């Protein structure tokens, strides 16, 4: 079966995602789709509003065939590592990679990605970073020698991620074609979006209002989870737990956290002593070199125990958990058995992973436990979910 692959977060799965998924299958001529999706925590540096099993179920009910989890240290990392992790996993299942972005011009993505991977592009990027610019700002400056249209591409959030997908394909030397699908409706993270295609604007709504902007099956999953007390709209408990943990950390511990360099731990330590609100701490600690998105990921990494050593130990994913699948997805799983890449359908089987990989799985399971501790209903704040929950299977 020809398979189109997508890297996503689906936080929540909204009508824009449904459109992109449908168009990716149609335009690629694929028979089925495979999605690599972030788990309990997202690349923005915050917990997802629904757990990974519910979001994966919504995706399959709305047309996806197989949903795999992007391992934690990739899911909450920079765009470059996020993209590399997703593409690495999908390369084992997909015949073409598709992504939604503000621009649908595939040759333009290739041009920008190839420039940034060239000696000239790398030198330009390093020079911009030395000037104290953030990574996105440095990317824009590095592309200054390109044509205006190419430079403009790097000012758009999803387009930057699209360029990172293409860079990952090149870095991994994959014969994987890519298909950008131009977004419809609101821009990425646009607040107050009237059409509901901005996940950021949707996350600010109560469940009953949010459901009106989602596909019917996704709305059904959302309302069911909200009724069960598993809708994380109020993150006050999570924030309190996080700040309690962060204030216990020493400066030496902060220096080991993934993403920390150049003394930023001093700004962060000062910030978390001035406020009990992580978002306020982000505002106090950010700078031109360290924008809010990066500070937020550093705080989350500190809370979850993600160190620079863990990042170095896993340059690419070495396993993936299965979160949901359709009948066609079942066929994809069967075909993947001989690939040599471990797919974990039952968490208890993770003990058969190599020692270091099993240890990493246990760390991810512990992060899931912290996620469920923040749920509104105390009865679902249980441990061991990663070992107990099963994937959603379409009947």
Notes on the protein architecture:
The structure is a single chain. The protein has 395 residues and is α/β, with parallel strands linked by helices. The chain has 2 domains: 3-103 and 180-233 and 315-393, Rossmann fold (3-Layer(aba) Sandwich); 236-311, no CATH class. Helices cover 51% and strands 10% of the residues. The chain has helices spanning 15-28, 52-61, 72-75, 79-90, 106-117, 119-130, 135-142, 148-153, 157-171, 199-202, 207-211, 216-227, 236-247, 251-255, 264-274, 278-285, 292-304, 308-313, 327-335, 355-373, 385-388, and strands spanning 3-8, 32-38, 66-70, 96-101, 178-182, 320-325, 343-344, 392-393. Strands 1, 2, 3, 4, 5, 6, 7 and 8 form an 8-stranded mixed beta sheet that branches. Helix 4 packs across helix 9, helix 6 (119-130) crosses helix 7 (135-142) and helix 16 crosses helix 17 (292-304). The chain is globular. The two termini are 20 Å apart. Residues 186-196 have low confidence and may be disordered.
- Our measurement of the CA-to-CA distance between the termini, rounded to an integer number of angstroms, reads 20 Å
- H and E string: EHEHEHHEHHHHHEHHHHHHHHHEHEHHE
Proportion of β residues? Answer: 5-15%
Radius of gyration: 20 Å
Secondary structure tally: strands: 8
* Stretches with pLDDT under 50, minimum 5 residues: 186-196
Q: Structural class per helix/strand content?
A: alpha/beta
* CATH hierarchy: architecture of the largest domain: 3-Layer(aba) Sandwich
- Average of per-residue pLDDT values: 92
Number of domains: 2
How much helix, percentage-wise, in residues?
40-55%
């Amino acid at each position: 079966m020809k398979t189109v692959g997508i890297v996503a977060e689906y936080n929540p799965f909204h009508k824009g995602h449904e459109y992109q998924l449908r168009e990716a299958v149609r335009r690629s001529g694929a028979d089925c789709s495979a999605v690599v999706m972030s788990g309990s925590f997202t690349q923005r540096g915050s917990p997802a509003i629904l757990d990974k099993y519910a979001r994966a179920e919504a995706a399959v009910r709305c047309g996806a065939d197989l949903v795999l989890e992007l391992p934690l240290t990739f899911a909450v990392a920079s765009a470059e590592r996020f993209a590399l992790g997703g593409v690495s996993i999908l390369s084992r299942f997909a015949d073409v990679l598709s992504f939604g972005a503000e621009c649908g011009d595939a040759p333009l993505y290739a041009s920008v990605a190839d420039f940034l991977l060239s000696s000239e592009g790398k030198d330009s990027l390093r020079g911009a970073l030395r000037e104290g610019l953030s990574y996105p700002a440095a990317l824009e400056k590095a592309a200054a020698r390109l044509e205006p249209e190419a430079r403009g591409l790097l000012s758009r959030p999803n387009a930057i991620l699209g360029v990172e997908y293409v860079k990952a394909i090149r870095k991994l030397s994959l014969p994987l074609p890519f298909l950008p699908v131009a977004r419809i409706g609101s821009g990425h993270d646009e607040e107050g979006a009237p059409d509901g295609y901005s996940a950021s604007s949707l996350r600010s709504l109560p469940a009953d209002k949010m459901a009106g902007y989602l596909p019917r099956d996704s709305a059904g999953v959302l309302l069911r989870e909200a009724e069960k007390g598993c809708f994380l709209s109020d993150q006050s408990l999570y924030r309190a737990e996080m700040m309690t943990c962060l204030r216990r950390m020493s400066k030496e511990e902060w220096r080991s956290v993934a993403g920390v360099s150049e003394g930023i731990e001093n700004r962060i330590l000062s910030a978390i002593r001035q406020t009990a609100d992580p978002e306020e701490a982000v505002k106090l600690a950010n700078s031109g070199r360290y924008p809010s998105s990066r500070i937020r990921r550093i705080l989350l990494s500190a809370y979850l125990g993600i160190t620079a050593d863990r990042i170095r130990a896993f340059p690419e994913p070495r396993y993936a958990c299965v979160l949901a699948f359709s009948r066609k997805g079942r066929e994809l799983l069967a075909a993947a058995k001989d690939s040599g890449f471990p797919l974990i359908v039952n968490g208890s089987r993770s003990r058969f992973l190599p020692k270091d990989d099993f240890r990493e799985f246990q760390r991810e399971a512990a992060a899931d436990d912290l996620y469920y501790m923040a749920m509104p209903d105390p009865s679902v704040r249980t441990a061991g979910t990663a070992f107990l929950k099963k994937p959603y299977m379409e009947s």
